[in-house]
Recover the amino acids of this structure.
């Protein structure tokens, strides 16, 4: 019999799970210590936290290990874990100038108040494989402190960049930390924002008046509906997959978005305070710090036509992502700009560049959704495929009996018809009686009765 | 919504093959809430469901949560199942009609691990909740059963309009001219409507709805069905519903009426059922064998026949 029951689904997936869990280790090989991953694969850990939407370096390192380095899978693990966490409340808003800065540059100006601080970056390294790192080889130079943050060390020298990255303060918030506008902790050098300098010079629009804080939407609680507000867009970009965002951003810079070459007003990397309202005292309390990258970019002032608004020379677009993840922060700011440019406009489909189309960008950059749906194609589809196959074969059989009005071209000789598909050349009302003159020009060279195979797998007869 | 089945509580008779209740595994997931999601999230899903029931066929946005199952692999249906399930419930999960499909097994396993006190079954008749991908069981369902469909694309207008902002307007104004034109053009170009799975339907004379990619064979079952049908699209973050006894009418023209798949008089090569949705399996001789896609129906019918002899010999046909 040709039929064998397809059974044993449970056994098969259990066996697959066992294979995945089986460590791929040589007998004498140590299993990776997740602390090593957290400290030595910081870029991967940061990417996972950013796309997973959960700041938890230790768990991100665990996800990285469990996923065997698959960053999509690791972000997925973190996202799924996040679903199970109850939400106690929301943190208080903060500002980039409260960041304890590790690195800070502006490409718009040669020098800026506070100075340029190159910090820890690979930007100007020469990309040569360092064979000294092979095996357990260590990088030359002094070994950085790994045992936590040294409060006495000035933050901006980059010395603490390898240390613990979610830093609990030694004490409850100091007395001066009770309002939303207090200075960052004393140990951190404060860098003025380049954007503030530019605002003072009237180059970019002033900040909106200090309204009482309007509760922003939360994309993890409510489904996004389009057109999406800017807070919604920024939240989606903050969790977006950096490769997808990079592609859209690159496309908009290069060609498909007007080619606005945005300028980095400021890019800073450092630790931001996490503040919440004390549940009993009602005062702001700093409960920790988290590593983040903030990008502010200058572009054309898209909103200058709005009546009543102060005209400015440039718009300021924004990117903020967990961890040190500059490529993504800049991509985010570019996409913030392209989406601001088309905000509120009614345009027919396709009139915008892909990077300026909210639904095009925002619906397709989520790593969990995009990878999940593309990979779901591995699931069985035999019912839907079978339904399609039946219809397609019926259509094909019908088409092979159909006729074509176009008279045979004198030369070249008609191609050999396949067996069983011998065309019958009879006029038929269903084939468009007005096309007897030989069809439109792009059909001139087509032999009568020939069927055209289109990309959808259906054989289409000639039809003018 | 937690119903039980006549005191059987999911335990099936001695036949075993068709109704074997999966024993809940000893190791349940420690450190996780009942049915995985936290209670407030489940409540939010149920609120969306209530709204969906109140407006048949209308897509209700909901704050879809990430699950330990990949997006696009049934997370919409699963969030509905996890939000409804409770002790005493009997859950059945099918994929393409089969309980043994690997993804169906995996989803059923997750329900078992996270929801103590819930039974799972393969037997359609004893299930209180049936989560499905791409099929409705052949066994007619009762009013105390709930169908939960996994939906990849909840928007029936997506093929004629890409933008959600615009399709929302079209639904709000019941402006369905473009999908009608698309169907008309299909008829003009192909002599028929070439939509094979997930055929668009009009629900309650108001909303055009995607019934999920079920074959046309299953679409008429939704019309005035005695049971509640719930649809979940996790990735697209939409929930919708067809309440019991609601009209569900496929979009079609008087002169090109809707028709279900035809199997040219074939019967199931395994159980001999004459009136089921069949799937073809290529055999080694280059032909095809047709069998029921609903594995529980097929197993039950086979038990009734009292023989495991396959009847394929007479039914095997070469694929055209």
């Amino acid at each position: 019999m040709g039929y064998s029951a397809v059974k044993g689904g449970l056994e098969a997936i259990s066996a697959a799970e066992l294979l995945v869990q089986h460590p791929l280790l040589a007998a004498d090989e140590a299993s990776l210590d997740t602390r090593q991953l957290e400290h030595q694969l910081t870029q991967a850990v940061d990417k996972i936290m950013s796309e997973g939407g959960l700041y938890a370096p230790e768990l991100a390192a665990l996800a990285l290990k469990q996923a065997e380095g698959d960053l999509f899978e690791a972000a997925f693990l973190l996202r799924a874990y996040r679903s199970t966490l109850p939400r106690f409340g929301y943190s208080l808003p903060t500002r980039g100038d409260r960041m304890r800065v590790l690195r800070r540059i502006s490409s718009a100006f040669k020098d800026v108040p506070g100075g340029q601080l190159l910090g820890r970056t690979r930007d100007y390294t020469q990309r040569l494989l360092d064979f000294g790192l092979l095996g357990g080889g260590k990088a030359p130079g002094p070994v950085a402190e790994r045992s936590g943050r040294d409060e006495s060390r000035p933050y901006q020298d980059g010395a603490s960049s390898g240390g613990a990255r979610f830093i609990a303060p030694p004490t409850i918030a100091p007395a001066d930390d009770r309002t939303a506008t207090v200075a960052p902790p004393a140990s951190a050098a404060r860098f003025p924002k380049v954007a503030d300098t530019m605002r003072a010079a009237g180059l970019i629009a002033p900040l909106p008046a200090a309204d009482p804080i309007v509760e922003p939407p939360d994309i993890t609680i409510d489904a996004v509906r389009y057109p999406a507000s800017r807070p919604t867009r920024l939240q989606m970009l903050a969790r977006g997959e950096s490769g997808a965002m990079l592609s859209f951003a690159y496309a908009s810079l290069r060609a498909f978005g007007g080619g606005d070459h945005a300028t980095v007003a400021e890019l800073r990397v450092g630790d931001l305070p996490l503040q919440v309202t004390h549940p009993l005292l009602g005062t702001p309390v700093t409960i920790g710090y988290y590593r983040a990258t903030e990008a502010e970019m200058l572009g054309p002032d898209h909103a200058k036509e709005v009546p009543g608004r102060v005209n400015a020379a440039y718009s300021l677009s924004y990117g903020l992502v967990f961890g040190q993840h500059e490529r993504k922060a800049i991509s985010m700011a570019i996409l913030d700009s392209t989406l601001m440019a088309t905000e509120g406009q009614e345009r027919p489909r396709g009139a915008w560049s892909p990077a300026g189309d909210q639904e095009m960008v925002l619906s397709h950059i989520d790593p969990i959704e995009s990878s999940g749906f593309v990979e779901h194609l591995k699931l069985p589809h035999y019912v839907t495929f079978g339904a399609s196959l039946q219809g397609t074969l019926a259509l094909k059989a019908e088409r092979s009996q159909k006729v074509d009005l176009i008279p045979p071209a004198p030369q070249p000789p008609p191609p050999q018809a396949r067996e069983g598909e011998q065309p019958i050349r009879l006029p038929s009302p269903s084939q468009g009686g007005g096309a007897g003159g030989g069809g439109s020009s792009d059909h001139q060279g087509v032999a009568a009765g020939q069927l055209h195979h289109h990309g959808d797998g259906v054989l289409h007869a000639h039809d003018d | 919504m937690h119903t039980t089945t006549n005191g059987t509580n999911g335990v099936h008779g001695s036949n075993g093959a068709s109704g074997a209740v999966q024993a809940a595994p000893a190791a349940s997931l420690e450190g996780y809430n009942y049915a995985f999601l936290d209670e407030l999230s489940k409540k939010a899903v149920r609120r969306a469901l209530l709204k969906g029931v109140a407006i048949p066929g209308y897509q209700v946005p909901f704050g879809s949560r990430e699950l330990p199952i990949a997006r696009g692999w049934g997370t919409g249906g699963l969030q509905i199942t996890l939000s409804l399930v409770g002790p005493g419930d009997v859950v059945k999960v099918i994929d393409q009609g089969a309980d043994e499909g690997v993804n169906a097994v995996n989803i059923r396993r997750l329900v078992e691990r996270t929801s103590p006190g819930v039974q799972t079954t393969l037997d359609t008749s004893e299930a209180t909740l049936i989560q499905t991908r791409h099929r409705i069981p052949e066994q007619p369902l009762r009013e105390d059963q709930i169908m939960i469909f996994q939906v990849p694309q909840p928007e029936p207008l997506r093929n004629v309009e890409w933008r959600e902002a615009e399709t929302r307007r079209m639904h709000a104004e019941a402006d369905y001219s473009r999908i009608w034109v698309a169907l008309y053009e299909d008829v003009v170009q192909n002599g028929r409507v070439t939509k094979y799975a997930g055929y668009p339907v009009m629900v309650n004379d108001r909303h055009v709805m995607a019934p999920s990619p079920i074959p046309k064979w299953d679409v008429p079952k939704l019309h005035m069905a005695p049971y509640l049908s719930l649809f979940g699209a996790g990735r697209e973050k939409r929930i919708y519903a067809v309440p019991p006894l609601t009209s569900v009418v496929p979009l079609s023209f008087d002169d090109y009426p809707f028709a279900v798949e035809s199997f040219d008089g074939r019967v199931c090569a395994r159980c001999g059922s004459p009136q089921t949705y069949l799937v073809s399996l290529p055999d080694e001789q280059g032909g095809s064998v047709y069998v029921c896609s609903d594995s529980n129906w097929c197993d039950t019918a086979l038990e009734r026949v009292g023989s495991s002899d396959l009847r394929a010999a007479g039914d095997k046909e070469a694929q055209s």
User: Anything to note?
Assistant: Chain A has three domains: 32-86, 96-120+153-376, 400-460.
